[in-house]
Design brief:
With about 350 residues, the protein is of the alpha/beta class. It is built from nine helices and 14 strands. Strands 2-10-9-8-5-3-4 form a seven-stranded mixed beta sheet, with helices on both faces. Strands 11-12-14 form a three-stranded antiparallel beta sheet, covered by helices on one side. Strands 1-13 form a two-stranded parallel ribbon. Bound molecules: pyridoxal-5'-phosphate (PLP). It is found in: Cytoplasm.
């Protein structure tokens, strides 16, 4: 039995993988693969409709916000957001909390003016800046809710006088959010929703079509909304597997239930990191992510042997990102408390071995 602590792409429950595998051969007894059925067929239209319905229900998406399933990953949204929301001559406000936030800023600067309201780059993004002000004349305010690489998370929606845009790629569906507080939310599916290849966008309709800019249709949210995410061929398999995973989440009790599990999982792991003298967390305790737990060994020479021990115990994907080093335990929705307990056991065993 393996426990996958990898940061992506696509950490889903075993039963979802199994059902997806069956559908690759014979989708819903059609005698056809999910990969070959027409995206215009009534069978696939039903998949698209159910996926949208599940997102709307699980995240309590209000009327007036459209739900889209697009291609191009969250990285495409770094550009599409300013293309659609930042009028020529206007400016957008961004919070810089890590690699992905910086990339979003870099792309927005190609479209218009950007004001970075605060950054934690001075401390290798180990904390979330506080006490900044969002300018009232910005078109929108963008922040990354969970910093996948650095292991920090923003739990409270920032105060902003202008519409809030959030990259929720690595914590969407892990905890309750109030969608009405957001002008736009986007998330590459590949952590808590489904396989890479589909990107969820939830956008408040009234914000669109106001920049006066003519966009290529593929980069314009409105044609995608008008076509029900079928402006062009949708990523059928990624959407189908997302639907299966959303069904799994609903059957578990939904976002509130998974949030409680995620709180327990994160607390269990951080408690051990804080207790065990061989390990140290890298993120500021008040900003610690519940999804990506970053930590290092006090003694650099312990790093490789601990990874080896973890591997022997079936714990994979723990190597930290190169910009932080050490370890990163990604504990997304599908990673069970059993997996977290197995990691804690390995850390305690390692402590015993190195007394
Ligand atoms: N934003 C965040 C928070 C991420 O974690 C990632 C990828 O891990 C991205 C953006 C980039 O997503 P994509 O690879 O879908 O473009």
């Amino acid at each position: 039995m393996k426990h996958n602590f990898g940061a992506g792409p696509c950490i889903l429950p075993q039963e979802v993988f199994e059902e997806a595998a069956r559908a690759v051969v014979n989708f819903n007894d059609t005698g056809l693969s999910i990969l070959e059925i027409s995206h215009r067929s009534k069978e696939f239209e039903a998949v698209m409709a159910e996926t949208e319905r599940l997102v709307r229900e699980l995240l309590a998406v209000p009327h007036g916000h459209s739900i889209l399933f697009l291609q191009g990953g969250a990285s495409t949204q770094f550009a599409m957001v300013p293309m659609n929301l930042l009028p020529p001559g206007g400016k957008a406000a961004y919070l810089d909390t890590g690699t992905w936030a910086s990339k979003a800023i870099k792309e927005a600067k190609k479209i218009g003016d950007v004001s970075v309201v605060a950054s934690s780059s001075d401390a290798n993004y180990t904390y979330i800046p506080k006490g900044y002000e969002v300018p009232g004349d910005a078109a929108y305010f963008h922040y990354t809710s969970n910093n996948t690489i650095f292991g920090t998370e923003v739990f409270e929606t920032p105060q902003s006088p202008v519409p809030v845009v959030s990259d929720m790629s690595s914590d969407i569906l892990s905890r309750r959010i109030n969608v009405a507080d957001f002008g736009l939310i986007y998330a590459g599916a590949q952590k808590n929703m489904g396989p890479a290849g589909v990107t969820l966008v939830i956008v408040k309709d009234e914000l669109l079509g106001k920049t006066g800019r003519t966009l290529p249709a593929i980069f314009d949210y409105q044609p995608h909304i008008a076509a029900g995410s079928m402006y062009n061929t949708p990523p059928v398999f990624s959407i189908y597997v997302s639907m299966l995973n959303l069904r799994w989440l609903k059957a578990k009790g939904g976002v509130d239930v998974i949030e409680q599990e995620n709180i327990i999982k994160a607390r269990t792991l951080y408690d051990e990191i804080d207790r065990n003298p061989l390990f140290r967390g890298t993120a500021a305790p008040e900003d610690r992510s519940r999804m990506n737990v970053t930590f290092v060994t006090e003694n650099k020479e312990h790093e490789a042997p601990f990874l080896e021990l973890a591997k022997e115990r079936g714990l994979v994907g723990l190597k930290g990102h190169r910009s932080v080093g050490g370890f990163r335990a990604s504990i997304y929705n599908a990673l069970s408390i059993t997996g977290v307990n197995a990691l804690v056991d390995a850390m305690q065993e390692f402590e015993e071995q190195n007394k």
